[in-house]
Design goal:
Number of helices: 5
Helix content: 55-70%
Radius of gyration: 18 Å
Structural class: mainly alpha
Low-confidence stretches: none
Largest sheet: none
Number of strands: 0
Distance between the termini: 65 Å
Length: 99
């Protein structure tokens, strides 16, 4: 006997996927507030990606993983940020705010 499908009520809140991955990455590591608009978050993400420390860590990640498409850049930046200590993240936050 088949079970009848249960219908879920429609979601009233926007999905987490509605927020771009770079926004989620920056919020996760405390570099921006969750309420920062998406265009501003992208500007911050570009500054983070241009930081020499992040580039150095991202190159280490890139060597182990052949990156051929754009989403991998977000992943490499996320992995680079994940490899940083709290002090390094605070220093990065100060550097990007100073630019």
């Amino acid at each position: 006997m088949k079970h009848p499908k249960q219908k879920r009520p429609p979601q009233t809140h926007p999905s987490a996927l509605a927020v771009p991955s770079y926004h989620r990455i920056l919020v996760k590591h405390g570099l921006i507030e969750k309420t920062l608009p998406i265009p501003d978050a992208y500007e911050v993400f570009l500054k983070v990606g241009a930081d020499p420390e992040v580039q150095k860590l991202r190159r280490k990640v890139a060597r182990g993983n052949k990156m051929k498409h754009v989403p991998a850049l977000y992943l490499a930046t996320a992995m680079a940020l994940q490899g940083m200590t709290k002090q390094e993240l605070e220093a990065l936050k100060l550097r990007i705010e100073g630019k």
